[in-house]
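[Discussion] Sanity-checking designs against the backbone

I'm trying to build intuition for which residues belong where. Below is a structure token string of 505 positions. I'd appreciate it if someone posts a full sequence so I can compare it with mine line by line.
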């Protein structure tokens, strides 16, 4: 039976009153993250509690900590049981503006990881609460990436997994690399000899019943207390079953009444074996968890696949490797984007053609998109941010605003030309008329989102990439709209006018 032990230790000052606690509860949990770890296999609950307390004390030495909670025995939802070797640690952080060490969250995690690596008996991995649960459902592992090794031979699969772990650890940026399975445990193995069993006039079921009764216990009756019933379990005493030799001396009774030691019909030995066996689509597999820091997913996978092919030798017919986790999401996203993006751009081009009436002008406006994207990507690179869901939403907003400003500019120039102005005068006048509205639109958006792009408070991890893309990308796109776009328009239309004159001649 698995048991659950939850211990919560608070390292922040006691808050005055329940109302104050309620007001600050979000502040305590909004920036939290999870630490999942493995303790030595076969650990007792007392030792597990002690190591959990050691973990909390170590983490509590960091001034950025608000609270630390350790949990042993099952997951947060109580849906999956673990042994006492599996420990979960929930960490709460103080508001960023109260940090005095000058570290950000990434630096804090690195410092924690370095500290925990010096503690013997702990194998830990860091993750975010929400993405942790998502990755558990998608990849079956609590990590950014998971490498699944499929094979029917458990021993050889574990051997391959250990070699792959050693290879992946050599790649810069790969952290928390470990086999996502508890280490092998000592096991008692009883191998029945069917021929010997038949010689003594016994059945395999007789041997199984004796083992069940002696070692595991068997219900032989029931007692009733009120409306509840309880099984009466019978099991041999500890002294008769605590060694393989004593288990071998357990007696079987044949149909003639003869007593046969269990060792005469079965081989009894101590060995080590897998603590759990995982299956996916009825296929046995082991999972290797990997978290990434300071390296993009594509570069890591290229290096990892190349190094695994060069350094890990195995039978490709009996065993095969498959990446899961963010890689699967990215692969699906790329496939969808390969269809959605061209379709969206095509629809946008048609709409611009319908609004402007000339295909070349619609195509000219579409040229703003890569220039605006370049500004946003440059800003992310300079500030050390990655392309994620938040920044992708920022790019969508950026494209919309950039195209809108371009349409305003080109439409006004076309209106001036329809009123009889020549090309040069129309372009200059149009830029002068639309300079202030476009600049004011961009300025309002930039000033409104600039605090979010520079924020370090709660929720800033999501807000900052989105705001950064819009602020700096819009600055770049505004320069393009006010200066480069009219120039390109003038050159294109002048060329078309000369072409029309030559055709008339």
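Best answer:
Here's mine. Compare freely.
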């Amino acid at each position: 039976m698995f048991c659950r032990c939850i211990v919560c230790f608070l390292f922040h000052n006691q808050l005055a009153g329940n109302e104050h606690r309620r007001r600050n509860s979000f502040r305590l949990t909004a920036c939290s993250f999870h630490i999942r770890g493995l303790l030595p296999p076969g650990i007792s609950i007392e030792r597990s509690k002690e190591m959990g307390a050691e973990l909390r004390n170590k983490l509590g030495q960091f001034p950025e900590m608000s609270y630390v909670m350790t949990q042993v025995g099952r997951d947060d939802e109580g849906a999956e049981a673990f042994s006492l070797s599996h420990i979960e640690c929930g960490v709460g952080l103080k508001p960023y503006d109260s940090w005095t060490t000058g570290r950000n969250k990434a630096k804090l995690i690195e410092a924690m990881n370095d500290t925990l690596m010096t503690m013997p008996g702990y194998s830990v991995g860091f993750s975010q609460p929400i993405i942790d649960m998502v990755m558990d459902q998608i990849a079956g592992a609590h990590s950014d990436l998971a490498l699944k090794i499929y094979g029917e031979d458990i021993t050889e699969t574990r051997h391959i997994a250990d070699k792959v772990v050693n290879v992946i650890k050599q790649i810069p940026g790969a952290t928390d690399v470990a086999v996502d399975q508890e280490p092998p445990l000592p096991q008692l193995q009883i191998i029945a000899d069917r021929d010997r069993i038949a010689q003594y006039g016994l059945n395999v079921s007789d041997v199984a019943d004796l083992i069940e009764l002696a070692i595991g216990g068997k219900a032989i009756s029931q007692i009733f207390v009120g409306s509840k019933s309880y099984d009466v379990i019978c099991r041999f005493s500890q002294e008769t079953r605590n060694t393989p030799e004593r288990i071998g001396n357990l007696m079987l009774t044949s149909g003639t009444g003869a007593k046969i030691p269990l060792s005469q019909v079965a081989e009894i030995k101590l060995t080590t074996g897998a603590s759990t066996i995982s299956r996916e689509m009825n296929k046995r597999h082991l999972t290797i968890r990997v978290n990434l820091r300071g390296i993009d997913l594509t570069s890591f996978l290229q290096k990892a696949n190349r190094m695994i092919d060069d350094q890990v030798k195995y039978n490709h017919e009996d065993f095969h490797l498959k990446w899961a986790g963010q890689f699967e999401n990215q692969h699906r996203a790329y496939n969808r984007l390969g269809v959605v993006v061209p379709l969206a751009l095509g629809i946008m081009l048609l709409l611009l053609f319908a609004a402007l009436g000339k295909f070349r002008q619609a195509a000219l406006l579409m040229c703003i998109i890569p220039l605006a994207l370049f500004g946003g990507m440059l800003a992310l690179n300079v500030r050390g941010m990655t392309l994620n869901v938040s920044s992708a939403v920022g790019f969508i907003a950026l494209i919309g605003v950039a195209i809108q400003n371009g349409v305003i500019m080109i439409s006004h120039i076309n209106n001036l030309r329809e009123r009889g102005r020549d090309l040069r005068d129309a372009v200059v006048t149009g830029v002068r008329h639309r300079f202030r509205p476009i600049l004011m639109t961009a300025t309002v958006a930039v000033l409104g989102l600039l605090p979010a792009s520079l924020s370090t408070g709660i929720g800033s991890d999501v807000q900052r990439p989105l705001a950064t893309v819009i602020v700096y990308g819009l600055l770049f796109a505004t320069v393009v709209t006010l200066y480069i776009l009219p120039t390109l328009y003038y050159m294109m239309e002048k060329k078309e006018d000369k072409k029309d004159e030559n055709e008339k001649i």
